[in-house]
Structure of Transport permease protein:
Amino acid sequence: MSTTTLDGASRPRTARPLPGTLRLGVERARYEIRAFFRERDAIIFIFAYPIIMLAIFATVFGQDGAEVGDGVPFAQYFLPGMIATGVLLSSFQSLAISIPVERDEGGLKRLGGTPLPPASYFLGKVGQVLVVSVVQVALLLAVAALAFDVTLPDDAARWGTFAWVFVLGVAAGAICGVGFSSLPRSGRSASAVVTPVVLVLQFISGVFFTFYELPTWMQQVASVFPLKWMAQGMRSVFLPESAASLEPAGTWEHGMTAAVLAAWLVVGLVVGVRTFRWRRRDDG
């Protein structure tokens, strides 16, 4: 392209530079958030599932004032696991299923042909997961406090722990979801591949049962994966300090929680960078 000056000379038009990767990531996140909230069935499932499960388990196991360990009400004990599994659903499961669908429908192929940096696309996905997870957890905490008389923390240190466990959990789950999204062969098979993985992790990670009562070998397997550590980190926020004696190590292991979640974040990033595909397998 060129422009003509008053003297008749032709000069090339200067192209406007593209916005930076971060700014494009923010704009992509806004788009992803709007698209998510248009999917009413996804909204109902992701937001309602942790609340419904908390209600079921607190009601079934908390009959006649039954408690866990040293006087911890069942609703109080199960809330951290529901927060952790909600983050898993909003991050890992959501992205591991939705990205293959986008790939099948050609959306990723079209994006791959635009100047949008891949990093901005991934930042957009992480931003969408973060916003959805914040809303989901806020609803869950409100229901737990109002309907089940769950006592929420009243000191800044516990909420500080909540913040870093939550942020690390969301980031690790989202990046692992992106990395896992290349495994399903098609969008139609994604749910069948991802859902069993999520269900198994929930059963072995102390989400549906008191973790200390699970078989030792199951605890050891669960310790490899991030959901167990998210749930344990959240228990350190919402349970009394005396409940740390119920954990396998007898402490909350905050250092190990941070290390495992950070390790899965790195693993997911490496796998995602090496395996992510913009096109279907049959599309070259």
In short: Strands lie at 2-4, 10-12, 67-68, 72-73.
